[in-house]
Design a protein that fits this description.
By secondary structure, the chain is α+β, with helices and mostly antiparallel strands. The protein has three helices and seven strands; from the N terminus they run ααββαβββββ.
């Protein structure tokens, strides 16, 4: 009987391939699943800042940012560089494909209020003036029916409980 050395990476690779095949047979190609970029939403005064992690994305050709009434949409795609490699993939954790993220906007926000910057794999979208300034409080004078007549308010006496003297 020959002794074979167990290689955990070979087992992991086989398990990863079998799992990918199972997912592909059940829900279709893994390329249609895409990925969902990580997002934070941060309040900065009256603005909201939305950073998205998009490493490896061609921001000029593969990402669209649109503002529609009451909606901000960030959509795009990331291609997989492993498709061009000739080597056999042992572990695949990097996702590729299409993504789409939508955010609700207040009614008064327009495309002029949205600014986007991309640096080192991080797309930062700033939505300005999200908070509408609250109108100043205005005191309203109450007019009375007649200035000389003052309303008469009768005070009702509460009935008192009977007291008993115990000696």
């Amino acid at each position: 009987m020959a002794i074979m050395r167990w290689d955990p990476f070979t087992a992991l690779s086989r398990m990863d391939t079998e799992f990918d095949d199972l997912v592909r047979r059940t829900w279709g190609s893994s390329q249609t699943a895409g990925f969902v970029p990580a997002v934070d939403m941060v309040r900065d005064g009256d603005d909201v800042v939305i950073p998205l992690e998009l490493p490896g994305v061609d921001i000029d050709n593969d990402v669209d940012i649109e503002v529609a009434p009451r909606r901000l949409t960030i959509a795009g795609s990331r291609t997989s560089e492993s498709e061009s490699s000739q080597g056999r993939v042992m572990v695949r954790e990097m996702r590729a494909g299409s993504f789409r993220r939508e955010f609700a906007l207040p009614e008064h926000v327009s495309a002029d209020d949205v600014q986007a910057d991309y640096d080192k794999g991080l797309l930062t979208v700033r939505v300005r003036n999200v908070s509408r300034p609250e109108p100043a409080a205005t005191k309203i004078a109450v007019a009375s029916a007649s200035a000389s007549a003052t309303p008469q308010v009768e005070s009702a006496k509460e009935p008192q409980a009977p007291t008993t003297d115990e000696a």
